[in-house]
Amino acid sequence: MPSLVKLFAYSFGATVFYQCYHFVGTVVYCEGISMEPTVRDGDYMLVERLSIYFRRIKKGDIIIARQYCEHDNCNFVLKRIQAVEGDTVNYVSPKLRKPVTVQIPKDHVWIEGDNKEHSLDSRTYGSIPYEELEYRVVLRLLPVASFGWVDKGKQFK
């Protein structure tokens, strides 16, 4: 009987851990310079999913999205939400090298890296469907000297 209780306890613990990881959030390691100086290469960030599920993502939030750019060799991208559905975005197209104006379609967002010169983002591949969003970044955990809430960006305060 005690082994049955242990088995139940381990199973319950594993289930709770999985549910927290899958539905609430986790810790991620960040690679790359596209979000510098806000998020640096090697930072560990606490991320959550509830904002995505309840559609509470706002301009200025830093998110992690499933890779949308086919020629990049990573599975996820970490970028800032610059615009949401219905917004108009003016930018210089890296492909055309001229000013372009686009309106963000329903259920899409426009994402850009803070380090614009070193970022493949919506300026390259356009707006992305909301369903591609995975996490919202909440807190920098490491390095300890930089521990704290993530900056919303000057233009969104």
From TrEMBL:
Q: Which GO terms describe its biological process?
A: protein processing involved in protein targeting to mitochondrion; signal peptide processing
Belongs to which family?
A: Belongs to the peptidase S26 family. IMP1 subfamily.
User: Residue limits of the Peptidase S26 domain?
Assistant: 18-95, 102-140
Question: What keywords sit in the KW lines?
Answer: Hydrolase, Membrane, Mitochondrion, Mitochondrion inner membrane
Q: What is this protein called?
A: IMP2-like protein
Task: Provide the protein's localization.
Answer: Mitochondrion inner membrane
Presence of keyword Membrane: yes
Naming one, the record's GO cellular component terms include: mitochondrial inner membrane peptidase complex
Which residues does the Swiss-Prot or TrEMBL record annotate as the active site? 34, 79
Supply the CDD domains for this chain: S26_SPase_I (cd06530)
Q: Does the keyword Methyltransferase apply?
A: no
Complexes and interactors: Heterodimer of 2 subunits, IMMPL1 and IMMPL2.
PANTHER family xref list:
MITOCHONDRIAL INNER MEMBRANE PROTEASE SUBUNIT 1, PROTEASE FAMILY S26 MITOCHONDRIAL INNER MEMBRANE PROTEASE-RELATED
